[in-house]
Amino acid sequence: MEYRKVGKWGLKISEVSLGSWLTFGNQLDLNSTKQVVRYAVENGINFIDTAEAYANGIAEAMLGMVLKEYRREDLVISTKIFWGGDGPNQKGLSRKHLLEGTWNSLKRLQLDYVDILYCHRPDPEVPMEEVVYTMDQILKSGLAFYWGTSEWSAEEIEQACKVAEKMNAMPPVVEQPQYNLIFKKRVEEEYAPIYEKYGIGTTIWSPLASGVLSGKYLEGIPEGSRLDRWPWLRKTMEERGIFQEETLQKLKRIKEIAEGLGVTMAQLSIAWCLRNPHVSSVILGVSSLDQLKENIKAVEVKNLITDEIYSELNSLF
Ligand code: NDP
Hints:
Layout: E1 3-5, E2 12-14, E3 16-18, H1 30-42, E4 47-49, H2 58-67, E5 76-81, H3 95-109, E6 114-119, H4 128-140, E7 144-149, H5 154-167, E8 174-175, H6 185-190, H7 192-198, E9 201-204, H8 226-229, H9 231-239, H10 245-261, H11 265-274, E10 279-284, H12 289-295, H13 298-301, H14 307-316
Parallel strand pairs: 3-10, 4-5, 5-6, 6-7, 7-8, 8-9, 9-10
Antiparallel strand pairs: 1-2
Helix pairs in contact: 1-2, 2-3, 3-4, 4-5, 10-11
NADPH dihydro-nicotinamide-adenine-dinucleotide phosphate binds at residues 19-21, 23, 27, 49, 150-151, 176, 205-211, 214, 216, 225-226, 266, 283-287, 291, 294-295.
């Protein structure tokens, strides 16, 4: 396992990490969550990602129970604030919700601090000064060590960095965007100017596009799979053309390349993400221990991707 710096900053995280969306507290109960976390940590993963919104707080609560087994200094834990509840002040990035959301998350996680606290989405209703000042204060109170953004535009991240400079406050150090073989424009094009300028790292989500890049949907939708369980997600994928013939052909080509290398399509797809030097960590989503055992091997598979294979994969989508 390689440990990568988060952009220009001092924090080091494992190149693959463990996520908890739709899995902890949904497909994984407490016992299986324990097993998955244990396997991850024993195999070099030091970074675990969650959010106040995941399973309405249950994902954080479950992780909190599991983390008791570990020495805090050995782990990097992140959570994300934005969707805390239905009330007018329970969502978004107001000072009130950022502080209350953080306190509530820490209670569920049974932790004194998280290493990274993300603003889970941008909030156009809140002035950037309010967000930056509050995040800086959360950091100064020791409730979090670093802060980041998730699915913010490059322009919004740049604005936050400029405001932080003006206020002598800590800027965001990391963005959490979607990045995979299919959806790559934002990470590769939109953010290109801000990596060097502000030293931003990325912890990327949905490396398998919710499982599509494992090849499991090539012959239809298997029962119990993510797109079977969450119809809204299936609809989103349909709208993005995932089940159109042209896309299916491209996915089949990725599968062929993987088979040629003697690896699985999931491993190759994750390994492709790791080839991007601006990726600090690829967050793995797994609904079973077997998936984790398979996917974590992507760290070895990245060395099998020749320049020729890399450029063919890049040219597909
Ligand atoms: P992926 O795109 O990798 O999808 C993971 C899902 O794909 C699994 O739950 C499983 O679903 C299926 N899968 C995984 N491996 C395999 C395999 N080897 N073979 C077959 N199926 C497989 O990642 P996620 O979308 O889960 O994102 C990863 C993490 O990123 C999340 O857990 C979360 O922490 C974070 N995230 C952040 C977001 C943000 O807005 N900041 C948004 C989304 C995620 P199944 O078995 O049920 O089909």
